[in-house]
Design brief:
The complex is a heterodimer of chains A (183) and B (145). Chain A has 183 residues and is α+β, with helices and mostly antiparallel strands. Helix content of chain A is 22%, strand content 23%. Chain B is mainly alpha-helical. Chain B is built from nine helices and no strands. Classes of the chains: A alpha+beta (183), B mainly alpha (145). Chain A binds chain B through residues 83, 107-113, 115, 122, 124, 126, 145-147, 152-157, 159, 163-164, 168, 178-179, 181-183, and chain B through 1, 5, 8-9, 11-23, 27, 30-32, 34-36, 38, 44, 47-48, 72-73, 76-78.
């Protein structure tokens, strides 16, 4: 133990004789400043972040071309919900494509296209509201990809699609695949 | 609700087109029109005008053709002039084939371009006037819109 004390003491004295306190503070300052600048370097960290966790922090359940995706139909990031705006019927007693009991599917709908990472194809999806009951309130999901502001009315989804139904109360939204998109 | 329901319905406010490649009028109809007018162009009674057994009757009348090209849902759609002409021609061929005579002229890109940019101030009044003219010479489209 004494030997260890001597080694530490001699190395500490040697260091103190060779370097000034001012020099030490200067080096420490440079290190601290340099480490603060590292996060500002232009490095793409998106892939690393996505690989670490699935969407919204949930574990990734599938991968396509190295990019993770979820297969949980109660998760807003599920591929079919890419243009949805509303409560997921899969969290409201229905499924991703069928209305809960006691509600009626809207006769008019919002239509979008979504890319399915599982098979690499694009699909046309109809987002029908389920009508006739008060709002479900579960799994609020706002994605609305390719939606445009209200002044482009034909491409704006801020609409209660229950408006043409007899009961116009909005409950939740389903996503019905109409077919594949593309040539 | 009803005060703005009809204009929205007429606009066919359905289209969330996409990055998907263009694949012709059938897909354009699905993306830009079908949400309101329906898979069979049947419309919603009292809410959304049908195109089936209706559009062809407008097409056979000069004012009817102008009305179809200026109605907000068509004129303000994201479709190009050529795409809009193709969709309208596809709809009549698909859903109005039994009424589509050889004398019915197809919509052309130039005709769409010449008409769609003239705003229509009173949709309902214009429609009523056109329907009256069509009814004078034959079967007219539905009147409750």
């Amino acid at each position: 133990m004494q030997r260890l004390d001597r080694i530490v003491e001699s190395s500490a004295r040697s260091l103190a004789q060779r370097t000034s306190r001012r020099s030490f503070i200067g080096v420490l300052g440079r290190i601290l400043t340099g480490s603060l600048l590292i996060p500002l370097l232009p490095i793409d960290r998106i892939q690393r972040a996505e690989a670490a966790t699935g969407p919204e922090g949930s574990p990734a359940k599938g991968k396509s071309a190295g990019k993770p995706y979820t297969e949980d139909q109660q998760n807003c990031e599920y591929w079919k919900y890419c243009a949805i705006d509303g409560f997921l019927c899969s969290c409201c007693g229905g499924s991703s494509h069928s209305c809960p009991p006691g509600t009626q599917q809207s006769v008019v709908s919002w239509i979008g296209t979504c890319h399915n990472p599982a098979d690499g194809r694009d699909y046309i999806v109809s987002y029908n509201d389920c009508c006739g009951k008060a709002s479900c309130g579960n799994c609020d999901c706002y994605r609305n990809e390719r939606e445009r502001p209200l002044y482009r009315l034909s491409r704006n989804n801020d609409v209660n699609w229950c408006m043409a139904n007899t009961g116009s109360d909005y409950h939740c939204t389903v996503s019905v695949i109409l077919g594949s998109s593309g040539p | 609700m009803n005060r703005w329901l009809l204009p929205v319905a007429l606009l066919g406010a359905t289209a969330a087109a996409g990055a998907a490649a263009r694949a012709g009028p059938a897909q354009d109809y699905a993306l830009h029109c079908m949400g309101c007018h329906g898979a069979s162009a049947q419309g919603v009674p009292g809410k959304v005008p049908p195109l089936a057994h209706s559009l062809v009757r407008f097409m056979n009348n000069a004012e009817g053709r102008r009305y179809v090209l200026r109605v907000p849902g068509a004129a303000n759609s994201m479709l190009s002039d050529a795409q809009l002409a193709a969709v309208l021609n596809w709809v009549v061929a698909q859903f109005d084939a039994d009424e589509l005579g050889s004398a019915t002229p197809q919509f052309r890109e130039q005709e769409v371009a010449a008409n769609r940019h003239t705003p229509m101030a009173g949709v309902l009044a214009t429609r009523a006037a056109v329907l009256k003219e069509i009814a004078a010479i034959g079967p007219a489209p539905a009147t409750e819109y």
